[in-house]
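Design a sequence for this backbone.
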């Protein structure tokens, strides 16, 4: 809710979490502005947006249709982010006064902060009062202050840190990246990871996805190299983000990525606030206990961020966003991070261990593929299935031995799932080699036309017999099936010749294969098994069994043929007896 500056004295100290815990289920109990938890990180490391509390802030009548300026502070935990945010609050409540820092005896209040080594802020908190500020061009904008959970604390996963940092960067028009003592390479790499995690969740655009980023280097200890403040900070930042030809490609990519993400990048170097601030457990933010050099630069930094002439309205895809629109974007972004569409960021060790194990899997698969190619690949002749199976078993064991022999990070338990992945992929490759080997079997390739020829011949014989005995209906059906099979055979031949209508050809092959398999799996007598085993050798592909079934069917109907042609049957019988003798 928006308030006038005359209400400055209405907010007090909120260092006790129980005092300011304002949820969506209750109104502000005493009418005082306070931090509001809008993004909650649950115990199972999932995220929940308190839409009601956020809506109460952004949809109040005074601000909902105002263009919004969102200022956020993010960075590692226990580095003074909330401490800085409270000085921003002092400025917003007293910016009409030159001495906005207030009395030297006033304790620092607002967002919860304290000394110590344990984290204080979790999720994302927003100050419940949205400040209305007149810009030099006469427009009135709404200023929103956000405090975020510190990254890399002992209770948060890398995904938690990446999500909070990415969300705050996506929502804010000015992101303050709070860094301690120096800009190190790991700071840039983490920034690259977090911004890329945010860019994945946003719609693709030709514009840079984020607006302004300021590197705020706290406790800067080298003013003799680069002076405190913005001027020294910009020189220092230029040196840190410089891209040169002799740099490693990895270092160049990090810097190119950062430049491609932000419209404006700056840097400010801050001195140490003093030993009393760092070591006194009872320090409550009184200015008299803070090093004067720190407060002097604080008087420069905070107006640099929040003075009316420096405020940047939040833009998304080139359009200015109002408080009402920011609420909708907040809800849309959190839904993406609540789902499983985005990949989970991984620690450096986990990512390296995965790459190490995947490289071992690739090496083992490569060995398997090369040796199997020598056995049955390319122009190698058809190999008996039993021999192919035996060679597969030998080469498979060699591939697994290669995987086990590579030194891998992550330990035995971590590598076990990659070993299982390798076994699965090798078995899948073997299925492909079986199909490739079968395709070299000429009888296997001729299975479809052989099946259709058998059907045509069987229907021709059946039609002739049934027509002869006077069963015209069955004869007509047989002729119809014969014609259909003949058309199918011609169609299949055309498809194989022209390469067109491949889907239809696949259906014909499937139907023919089903008929073939059906004929091959019927129960047979011991004599039939003997004949079948003699005919179905590894190079016959099963066509002998189909020929035998055709011969058996003709033999069963021989008496009908002899009855129709008795003379010819007797002569043939005599001729066969003479040859047999």
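Sequence:
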């Amino acid at each position: 809710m928006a308030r006038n500056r005359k209400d400055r004295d209405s907010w007090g100290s909120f260092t006790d979490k129980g005092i300011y815990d304002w949820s969506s289920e209750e109104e502000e109990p005493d009418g005082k502005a306070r931090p509001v938890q809008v993004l909650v990180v649950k115990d199972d490391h999932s995220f929940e947006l308190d839409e009601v509390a956020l809506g109460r802030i952004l949809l109040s009548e005074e601000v909902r249709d105002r263009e919004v300026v969102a200022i956020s502070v993010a960075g590692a935990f226990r580095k003074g982010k909330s401490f800085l945010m409270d000085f921003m609050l002092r400025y917003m409540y007293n910016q009409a006064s030159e001495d906005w820092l207030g009395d030297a005896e006033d304790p620092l209040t607002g967002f919860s902060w304290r000394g110590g080594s344990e984290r204080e802020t979790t999720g994302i908190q927003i100050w419940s009062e949205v400040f209305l500020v007149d810009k030099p061009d006469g427009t009135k904008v709404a200023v929103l202050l956000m405090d975020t959970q510190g990254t890399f604390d002992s209770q948060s996963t890398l995904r938690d840190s990446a999500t909070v940092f990415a969300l705050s960067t996506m929502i804010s028009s000015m992101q303050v990246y709070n860094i301690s003592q120096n800009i190190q390479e790991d700071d840039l790499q983490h920034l690259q990871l977090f911004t890329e995690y945010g860019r994945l969740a946003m719609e693709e655009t030709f514009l840079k996805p984020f607006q302004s980023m300021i590197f705020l280097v706290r406790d800067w200890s080298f003013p003799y190299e680069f002076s405190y403040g913005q001027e020294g900070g910009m020189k220092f930042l230029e040196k840190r983000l410089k891209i040169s030809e002799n740099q490693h490609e990895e270092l160049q990519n990090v810097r190119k990525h950062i430049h491609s993400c932000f419209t404006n990048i700056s840097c400010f170097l801050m001195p140490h606030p003093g030993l009393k601030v760092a070591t006194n457990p009872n320090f409550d933010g009184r200015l008299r206990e803070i090093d004067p050099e720190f407060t002097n630069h604080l008087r420069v930094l905070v107006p640099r961020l929040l003075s009316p002439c420096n405020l940047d309205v939040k833009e998304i895809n080139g359009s200015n966003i109002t408080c009402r629109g920011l609420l909708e974007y907040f809800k849309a972004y959190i839904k993406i991070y609540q789902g499983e569409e985005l990949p989970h960021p991984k620690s450096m060790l986990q990512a390296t261990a995965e790459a190490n194990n995947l490289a071992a899997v690739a090496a083992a698969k490569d060995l398997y593929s090369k040796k199997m190619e020598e056995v049955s690949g390319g122009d190698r002749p058809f190999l008996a299935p039993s021999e192919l199976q035996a060679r597969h078993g030998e080469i498979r064991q060699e591939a697994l031995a290669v995987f086990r022999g590579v030194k891998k990070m992550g330990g035995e338990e971590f590598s076990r799932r990659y070993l299982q992945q390798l076994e699965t992929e090798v078995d899948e490759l073997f299925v492909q080699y079986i199909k490739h080997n079968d395709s070299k079997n000429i009888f296997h390739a001729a299975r479809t036309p052989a099946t259709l020829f058998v059907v045509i011949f069987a229907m021709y014989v059946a039609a002739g017999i049934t027509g002869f005995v006077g069963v015209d209906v069955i004869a007509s059906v047989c002729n119809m099936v014969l014609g259909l099979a003949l058309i199918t055979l011609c169609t299949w031949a055309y498809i194989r010749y022209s390469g067109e209508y491949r889907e239809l050809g696949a259906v014909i092959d499937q139907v023919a294969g089903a008929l073939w398999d059906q004929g091959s799996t019927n129960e047979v007598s011991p004599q039939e098994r003997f004949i079948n085993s003699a005919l179905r050798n590894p190079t016959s592909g099963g066509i002998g069994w189909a020929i035998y079934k055709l011969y058996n069917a003709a033999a069963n109907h021989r008496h009908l043929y002899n009855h129709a042609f008795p003379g010819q049957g007797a002569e043939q019988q005599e001729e066969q007896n003479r040859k047999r003798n």
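Residues 376 and 437 are 6 Å apart (CA to CA).
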